[in-house]
Amino acid sequence: MKIKRILVSQPKPTNDRSPFFDLAKKNDIVVDFRPFIHVEGITVKKFRMQKVNILEHSAVILTSRTAVDHFFRIAKELKISIPESMKYFCITESIAFYLQKYIVYRKRKIFYGKGKFDDLIEVLLKHREERFLLPLADSHKQEIPRKLRKYKLKHTKSIFYKTVSSDLSDLADVNYDILVFYSPSGIKSLLQNFPDFEQNNIKIASFGNTTAKAVKDAGLRLDIQAPMPKLPSMTMAIETYIKNGA
Question: Which residue range is the domain that position 220 belongs to?
Answer without folding.
Answer: 5-36+166-243
